Q: What sequence folds into this?
């Protein structure tokens, strides 16, 4: 998936579940393994157990040139290590996963315990 792959239409933070919900459409032409007929595919990505997140303007994201795809899992995350240190050595932070979600305009970094990715209807 390239920069033009994920279009964000909605963002919702759910405090009771510690969750973040992103919704919008995927550009099927930018999806490397898509074999359907539609040009656009509805999606929802929900992150659970979110302990921290932040967003960047796409052009200002310091690591944008190192990105592999539009949705990445960062291994050996320096950010999670930092969050653990500033949180009085809270080792539970190190059990989280560091996700990077790149939409057309923004990049989101999310420290969460898990995520769920759902696809919906296709359209031309």
A:
């Amino acid at each position: 998936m390239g920069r033009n792959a994920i279009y964000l239409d909605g963002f919702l933070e759910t405090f009771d579940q510690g969750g973040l919900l992103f919704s919008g459409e995927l550009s099927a032409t930018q999806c490397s393994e898509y074999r359907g007929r539609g040009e656009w595919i509805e999606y929802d990505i929900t992150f659970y157990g979110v302990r921290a997140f932040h967003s960047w303007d796409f052009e200002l994201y310091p690591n944008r040139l190192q990105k592999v795809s539009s949705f990445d899992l960062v291994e050996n995350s320096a950010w999670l290590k930092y969050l653990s240190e500033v949180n009085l050595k809270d080792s539970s932070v190190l059990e989280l996963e560091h996700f990077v979600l790149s939409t057309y305009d923004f990049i989101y970094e999310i420290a969460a315990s898990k995520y769920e990715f759902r696809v919906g209807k296709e359209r031309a």
Q: What stands out?
A: The chain has one domain: 6-123. Residues 78-86 form the longest helix (9 residues).
